[in-house]
Amino acid sequence: MSTEKGPNFIEELIAADVASGKHNGRVLTRFPPEPNGYLHIGHAKSICLNFGVAKKFNGKTNLRFDDTNPETEETEYVESIKADIKWLGFDWANEFYTSDYFDTLFEFAIKLIKNGWAYVDDSTSEQIAEMKGTPTEPGNESPFRNRTIEENISLFEKMKNGEFKEGEKVLRAKIDMASPNMHMRDPVIYRIKHAAHHRTGNKWLIYPMYDFAHGQSDSIENITHSICTLEFEVHRPLYEWLIEKLDIFPSRQYEFARLNLSYTVMSKRKLLQLVKEKHVDGWDDPRMPTLSGLRRRGYTPASIRNFCDIIGVAKRENVIDAGLLEFCVREDLNKHALRRMVVLNPVKLIITDYPDGKTETFHAENNPEAEDKGGYRQITFSKEIWIEREDFMENPPKKFFRLAPGQMVRLKNAYIIKCHSFKKDDNGNITEIYCSHIPESRSGKDSSGINVKGTLHWVDAGNCTSVEVRLYDRLFRSENPGGANDFTNDLNPDSCRIIHHAMAEYALTEAQPVEHYQFLRLGYFFADKNSTAEKQIFNRTVTLKDTWAKELKKKE
RNA sequence: UGUCCGAUGGUGUAAUGGUAACACUGCAGAUUUUGGUUCUGCCUUUCCAGGUUCGAAUCCUGGUCGGACAACCA
Known about the structure:
The protein is of the alpha/beta class and 556 residues long. The protein contains 13 helices and 25 strands. The strands form six sheets. Strands 10-23-24-25-21-22-11 form a seven-stranded mixed β-sheet. The protein has a seven-stranded mixed β-sheet with strand order 19-16-17-18-12-15-20, with no helix packed on it. The chain has a four-stranded antiparallel β-sheet with strand order 4-5-6-7. A hairpin with a 5-residue loop joins strand 17 and strand 18.
């Protein structure tokens, strides 16, 4: 249910540009991931924004891999990124790579040198850092700053031809070492890297820096609105300086605040660490905030798009409550998930007044929210059933609307039953519960006139299947994992609980891997990628809202 | 002790000089063969101080607080 929302500030800016006839009203955005990691929910915000505004103004969006650092970038990441964007539901107009522009970028650098706006510096990176000054003190000019144009061109060509070692020389823009903006203090724009690139192989021995690649690529593609996150705000003067000096298409950069989510980490460095140190089972572990993890967990593209819509776009730092993402997926799944009954922690319940060997078949709706109830499935009922252990209490507290000696409950889609006794083993564990049933209370034909407060899910012991269920919880137990300390200290030790043998109604044996299920009263579940017909595995996407659990917590 | 950016309920986001609202959360209730869903109601908001104005969340000035920036990363 995406309620109509007013335009965000980016959309307002674009609307003004379109109205004024800028670029003849043309709108072209781009999504520029670096292929050095998997996409996460924070990228989803950017994807929805970039593709969303373009669509809104009849424009298009390019996908451009920002691959200027061959040491960290891999084709595996390119493929995963493309798959994730498609899964989210977006199509790009063109698939480009910054590396497509290496020749042009090289020419741009030559042009800068020829106009006296760039020079080759022999200083070490330490020396350059030292000469840079600090945010409060101006920097010092490099002794190599005033080489002749001819010398600079010759040196830069030699850098390109591999005549220098890595780190021996860099190309710097010649701007202003006293600028209050650190990025204007003669930024490095090309560095030597004798590394193989995932696309250009060994063709290049020098690679442009982000600042000399990103804006220029935007310009080459005639991007009208280059939307990025706040930390690039201080780069904007350089972005514009380069466009002006190079006299190329004037793309403009706009910044918005990145997404932060409570109870998770979002930086690629930290996510990579979780994978490498095996705190999780890969980038697509269902507890990861990556799009592939969320997908495996059972999140739907629609729920993520809706989430991105709801959180809005602004310039102030924000932390979104993880509960909002859960709300969004529940809202979507409630409408679409097929209902099934599964008992996670079973205890045997025997209907003592039900004939031995008798079996009845009931029809159960697949989805009460659907107009046609999503069709119906068959479930069987007999003398012995499994119910959830937590649904029975020997000495129940007030307002416990479940089973207890002398108490009545409805078995979903079946009869009302009344508990009259139970059996315990030597350790005091309940092993069997004995009930009688009200024959007139059969679901759909209830003439008993009895009203009960509680309804339990159950599974016919004689006709069920065993499945594995993985109960996922938040990966971190603190709202802001780590704070200033090591974030891995805040990992939630109970973030994955595996139930090896849950009892599921027979209909679940026909589960389709693409279907989302609601296990009644438990939550939403989705078949894991490793699930097979022989061994079905279901991941819990999210629990149902549980006001009873909340009630119990309050009493603690 | 620099430059830039920001500040609206618990969390987000609107209101674009004219009654501060929407969503989530929380609380209370109704309905319910899922303690789910749905529905109803309630709680809670303009960082501070001046100024302009008939009127300021909005404009101005000065503070305060928070964030970004000193990679041959992006």
